[in-house]
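Entry 14. Structure prediction run on the chain below.
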Amino acid sequence: MGWGIANVKHAMRQPGCPLCRLCREAERRYLENLLWENVNDPATRAQWTAGLGFCPRHAWQLQRIEAHRYGDGLGNAILYEDLLQRVIPALEAMVPGPGAAPEPIWRRLARALGRVAPAEGHKEAAPGLQGRQRCRVCRLAEDTACAYADWLIEGLAEAEIREIYRNSDGLCLPHLRLVLARGRSRSPEAIQWLAEETVRRLRALLACLREYIRKHDWNHRHEPMRPEERRAWIRAAAFFAGEEGADDPLDDRGG
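Output returned:
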């Protein structure tokens, strides 16, 4: 296990789903390293081009990181300049010339950008654009989640790790499903413990939600709310949706 379970233990001592936190940290490290030293790296450029940049969430995260850390957008500008130089000629090649097949130009362009499957009888491809790959940072997050899920499964065989998990905020539903699926055959006992622990904490969350709702009733409005009740609605959303992109997912936000 080594450093992997050490990172899991550290994450479990922080607020929120530990795998969400570890994935966010991996995403941020990748984006920061991209801006700091890999903007001109050929392999990085190839991945950037293959995905036509990043998904919306990670594209804007890259913008925010550079703006906040460096006060400008030079790295982003270099990346997008390179991408546009590749995209424009490919799109120009999609403009039908005399005698071209009678296919609407919007469909030809959309297909070139990898968003529409080729129409029957139209197999030409725009160089560098056909078959757009998924966002590199999204794939990194998925790989990170799988690796740490495996370390957590292995760690749950130990009483110390179970105790740390019991005192943590636990896994969100997307990462719980991942851990259950990956651990079902390799560690049935750990998965059984995790399922029972999840039921226990969700019953407690349900009770807090009911108290939160009840204390909003006019007749009970003067009853003080416990911190766990005030944050129950935030915890419920964090469990079902995960905490992607949230730095402090369990703050008391005006509950």
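The longest helix spans residues 188-214.
Filed with the rest of this week's runs.
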